[in-house]
Specification:
two-stranded antiparallel ribbon, 2 strands
């Protein structure tokens, strides 16, 4: 039984890293714009299909597939902010919140992306990308780990480290952090707030696309695969919806919890586990594990 638990934990860490990437894409948008991006799952799906396009039709090696999907979806997210959200903000009435309209715009984007993919021939066929690596599994003590799973963890960790370095060490990253903390003060010191928000949407979309490419060899690819964003929301709530480190911890915890529940309760309970954890976290610690103090906000 101990071996089964260790195996379940190892597998949960792999899937949890992907949940964490998607949760990060949701949270950096929320921290910068106060908007919850309900199109995050469909952007994950677009990333998976972009990876398939790059691999099967353009013949790119796997190392370039991530860059191709990230660049394509960065442009998608930036254009959505520039063309749609910028117009919504421009029509805001002084003293009236525009957040509801912006959230509805993300819902509209999710349906546009899903419907657009269905129009493309052969996308209704269930597909799956070939694994990054093949070969004999690797033994870490008594635990058996596939080379594909190690590659997923390595890619996710590298992306998270690059994101941390970008926000902590670069001028653009510091400007984005200032914009997310206080947009008005950032504008007063000369930071182009609207351009920063467009950049945030691009970065968030690129993160979601990388997660989509990581998922494509493990999950069946369909236009409906974006429902996985529900698990990313769960990971963000567990860790704290305003905490980037909390997203990482919440994603890994959720992946492990799902596997433990599947081991002890049954596979049918796996889909219920995230929602049970969400209710438990909201009841005991509404701000999440690493979230700050809850504060009332007038809207």
């Amino acid at each position: 039984m101990t071996l089964l638990i260790l195996q379940a934990i190892a597998s949960g860490v792999v899937t949890g890293c992907v949940y964490a990437l998607i949760a990060l894409s949701l949270v950096i948008v929320y921290k910068s714009t106060d908007v919850i991006n309900f199109a995050g799952g469909e952007i994950v799906m677009i990333g998976g299909y972009a990876g398939m396009l790059a691999l099967l039709y353009l013949g790119l090696p796997y190392i370039l597939i991530f860059a191709f999907a990230a660049i394509a979806t960065f442009a998608l997210g930036a254009l959505f902010d520039r063309i749609v959200l910028h117009k919504v903000l421009g029509r805001a009435v002084p003293g009236q919140s525009i957040l509801v309209a912006m959230v509805i715009a993300t819902v509209g984007l999710s349906y546009v992306l899903k419907g657009g993919v269905r129009v493309v021939p052969y996308t209704e066929e269930v597909r799956r990308l070939p694994p990054f690596f093949t070969g004999e599994p690797i033994f870490i003590g008594p635990v058996v780990v596939q080379r594909q799973d190690i590659a997923i963890i390595v890619v996710a960790v590298v992306v998270m480290a690059a994101l941390w370095a970008f926000f902590s060490l670069t001028l653009t990253g510091k400007a984005l952090r200032a914009t997310s903390q206080n947009p008005r003060a950032a504008a007063l010191v000369g930071i182009p707030v609207r351009r920063m928000r467009m950049t945030v949407w691009g970065i968030a979309s690129a993160l979601a696309a990388i997660a989509g490419v990581l998922l494509a060899p493990k999950l069946l690819m369909t236009p409906d695969m974006g429902v996985i964003v529900i698990l990313a929301f769960a990971a963000a709530i567990i860790g704290g919806f305003a905490s980037l480190p909390g997203c990482i911890i919440g994603g890994i915890l959720l992946g492990v919890i799902q596997n433990i529940v599947g081991l002890y309760v049954g596979s049918n309970a796996i889909s219920v586990a995230p929602f049970a954890v969400i209710m438990l976290i909201l009841a005991l610690r509404p701000q999440g594990l690493l979230g700050g103090r809850v504060a009332a906000k007038k809207v």
